Amino acid sequence: MALICLILQIVTGIFLAMHYKSDFLLAFVSIEYISREIKYGWLIHYMHSNGASIFFIVVYLHMLKALMYGSFSHPRQLLWSTGVLIFLIMIITAFLGYVLP
Question: Structure pTM?
Fold first, then answer.
């Protein structure tokens, strides 16, 4: 499930990046252009937005399962720490994607 969400985020993100203008004055206008002028652009935009939320839910469930099974204990401490680091990077990336427009 997480792989499907990740692929969805990558594909829709590439499509949105092709039409996004990162200029301070044009960022919001480009989001409106994507949503209103491009055929099915609103669908791609909302799939990307909602896909991010679904991806976080899947990651939270995965972390909850790891906590319940004790996957953070002795032989897997480095693996758990790496996963938490990736999770923090994912939070920062999601925040930047949220404030970008």
Answer: 0.80
